[in-house]
Amino acid sequence: MPQSKPSVLFVCLGNICRSPLAEGIFRHQAGMAGYAQQFHAGSAGTGAWHAGEPPHPNSIAVAAQNGIDISGQRARQILREDLDRFDLIVGMDASNVANIRQLGTGRAEILRFLDHGDVPDPWGRGMDQYHAVFELIGQAMPNLINRLIRARKLAD
Ligand code: 4NP
What we know:
- By secondary structure, the protein is an alpha/beta fold.
- The protein has a domain at 55-71 and 109-156.
- The protein is 42% helix and 13% strand.
- The protein has five helices and four strands; from the N terminus they run βαβααβαβα.
- It has helices at residues 18-32, 57-65, 82-85, 94-101, 127-155; strands spanning 7-12, 40-45, 88-91, 109-112.
- The two termini are 19 Å apart.
- The protein binds 4-nitrophenyl phosphate.
- 4-nitrophenyl phosphate binds next to loops.
């Protein structure tokens, strides 16, 4: 991973529903804002159950309906090393953040995606929940992108 680019890792529990959507939406919005090549983004799960699998079919579907292809992503478990490899590690809910912090400390700043509240886990729920999660992530993502742009400018 090129160290020169500001990097962000999105983390949920299984890395098949929420964080793959966050990674895809981040890439999409950053690209639309003209920052397609400026950042490095990834996603991971605190659990390993789905390692190697593509995102959940409902996440793939809701992304595709919004013009975003996340089908090439593969789930992986977060590693201790990620805490030094990424600038920012973003948990989708408070339990994700707690589990990330249990790995230790590193260079990365760890925060929850939403300032106030959690991105609800749609796992085992209907397509409407995946749409709601997509909207929630999409609405809050500009904040995160602006934060990274500001950090980049300060560092330049
Ligand atoms: P995610 O959803 O954390 O948004 O990927 C889940 C996916 C799978 C499981 C839990 C949450 N699971 O227990 O297998």
